[in-house]
Amino acid sequence: MAAPKSLEQRLSDEIDARREDLIQLTGDLIRIPTLNPPGENYREICEFLRTRLAGAGFEIEMVRAYGTPGDSEKYPRWNVIARREGKHAGECVHFNSHIDVVDVGKGWTVDPFGGELKDGKVYGRGACDMKGGLAASIVAAEAFIAVCPDFAGAIEISGTADEESGGFGGVAYLAEKGFFAPERVQHVIIPEPLNKDRICLGHRGVWWAEIETYGEIAHGSMPFLGDCAVRHMGAVLEEMEDSLFPALALKRTDMPVVPEGAKQSTLNINSIHGGQAEGDADFTGLPSPCVPDSCRMIIDRRFLIEENIDDVQAEVMEVLNKVAGRRDKFRYDVTELHRVLPTMTEKSAPIVQTVARAIAETMGKDAQYVVSPGTYDQKHIDRIGKLKNCIAYGPGILDLAHKPDEYVGVDDMLDSAKVMGRALIELLASPKKAA
After folding, report:
1. Could you tell me if 174 and 267 lie in one domain?
2. pLDDT category, 1, cuts 50, 70, 90?
3. Which keywords does UniProt give here (predicted)?
4. Which string of DSSP letters, residue by residue, matches 68-129?
């Protein structure tokens, strides 16, 4: 007579048995085009998740983030939070995934919202970032409940808005409302695509700002009678190239940031616009001949845990002051758009150690510890929710995020679901009550 299977083996078998369901769920999520901006179909995907999770015995809350950036009657910022209470007192494990995806862009060879399965991969915008992770967390939770119905504590799964544009209509709003308070939730896993054998401890900081240079409008045939704001901005760019970019390249971190290039401080010129607004797509006329009196540039500065936000801002101001010292009539404004301080969970934190053991048991290898080059919703759980026991862990290859022909591997989703399920066993299962 064969020995009875362990709870872990039964969980693994249960997840394998749900392979087709996992593929279908991932495709269904991809086929709801939740583009942000502007924030399309948020209510539709939340209703889809409500139906799915209510069928698995979860209590559902739908929360609209009224008054947050982008929220309107046309594009309301909806979030869904599902909670399944266990049979005994215990801690709560929360899986948080964002529901929004970025613009499709060009270069696709498959339907970006087709959710097509090909060669063991599910393709589509958001497949990797992060609807595959959302699907894996749902399947992991449902499989765990099936093999361990008498678990202790609670499981929560959320689908939240606007992570791609800062998360203010999603996790930030929910954190302000107490949904991530440490007395309600004790462990958080965000299934972002950091590779299935990696635990992401946190992220670098970010400072977004708009720099505007000013000039004086005049006829384009007599530019000497005006003052070109675009040329002033050109001088700013030149000074950045000469002094700021080389200085940033010398700043290095001890944070385990991936990829290697992100271990230094970085600055991205996000956009530049000067002069007249571009015409509508169907306008075939020529622009009028004018000297531009305004030029705006948005900068995206990513900084390290060893840096101070005041110093980050001061470096940009130093560039502008240098330009002002050598250019007549140089006038400018700087407007802060967004700031996030770096965050990093300690390796000794319970959720880190639990998921590390689950990776080793599932894949037979030690977990890698990494830090994300860009921010994600851990920032709000940490700073607003005051919950430090939070990581990102999920299926998918980070380099595929926001790229054409984005995909997530089915086997990777299954392995990640098994890791998440094993984490639930360690944190919530009561062996005496297991089925």
Report:
1. no
2. low
3. Cobalt, Hydrolase, Metal-binding, Zinc
4. STT--SSS--EEEEEEEE-SEEEEEEEEEEE--B----S--SS-TTS--EETTEEESTTIII
Q: In the prediction, which pLDDT does 398 show?
A: 87
Q: Quick check: bond before 246 cis, omega within 30?
A: no
Residue in this structure with the two tokens 């269904």, named with its chain if needed: 28
The CA-to-CA distance between both ends of the chain, in Å, stands at: 20
CATH number of the domain enclosing 238: 3.30.70.360
Residue 388 identity (one-letter amino acid): K
Q: List beta partners, residue 200.
A: 370, 392
1 occurs within a structural domain: no
Distance separating alpha carbons of residues 291 and 224, to the nearest angstrom: 9
Residue whose entry in the numeric block shows the structure tokens 């404004």: 333
Quick one: 111 and 163 in the same domain?
yes
Query: Using CA atoms, how far apart are residues 53 and 47, in angstroms rounded to an integer?
Result: 10
- Report the chain's C-alpha Rg in angstroms: 24
Same domain, 54 and 191: yes
Report pLDDT digits (tens) over 314-364. Answer: 999 999 999 999 999 999 999 999 899 999 999 999 999 999 999 999 999
Token pair belonging to 148? 């361990």
How far, in Å, CA of 168 to CA of 161, rounded? 8
**Residue 300: strand, helix, or coil:** strand
Q: What angle do CA 398, 169, 265 make, to 5 degrees?
A: 45
